[in-house]
Amino acid sequence: MTKIAVFGYGSLVDPASAAITLGRPVPAPHPARLRGWRRRWSIARDNLRVEKTFALEAGGELPPWILGLNLERDQGAGGEPPNGALVELSEDELDRLDLREMRYDRVDVTGEAEGGEDFGLVVAYVTKPEHFSPRPPEGAVVMRSYLETVERAFAALGDDQLEAFRRSTGPPPVAVVDAVLVRDRIPPGNPRRW
Predict the structure, then answer these.
(1) What is the pLDDT of residues 118-156, one digit of tens each?
(2) What ranges do the domains of the chain cover?
(3) How many DSSP H helices and E strands does the chain contain?
(4) May I ask the CATH class of domain 4-184?
């Protein structure tokens, strides 16, 4: 049987976040890098029309867009490849991740995952074209709960992993805000904090 892993490069690096979706405890993930890719703040979620809407804690306004992390093919920029973690999965668990990562397409990155040699299949999630935003749309924000979860997960991943995350990603290109969930139709297994 083929061993399967997902290359987590954002909130899936956090075992508790992955466990929400997989419905089981997730052991500490394996650090990895993804050659030929870069990580950017280039997915935009329409905060006013999707399954979860957040309001700013200060003032209650609804930001129109929430940015998240995305993988993009590195077109020869030669930057540091994104670091992340490999989480072992079953085929059924891939279907659960597809529901969670509804704005992303699952892609095969088996030969590009440094540290994934023990897996017959390594996948990653890359934003669908309709959600790809190479420049932040007007009024976009990054949720502090998301950023803190990601940074805490990389810090727990091991020596220099948080610094490698920051070097290979750069700071959020928009304001980082505190926000609260005010409306939802969140599918099971999808985090509610961001």
Answers:
(1) 999 999 999 999 999 999 999 999 999 999 999 999 999
(2) 4-184
(3) 4, 12
(4) alpha beta
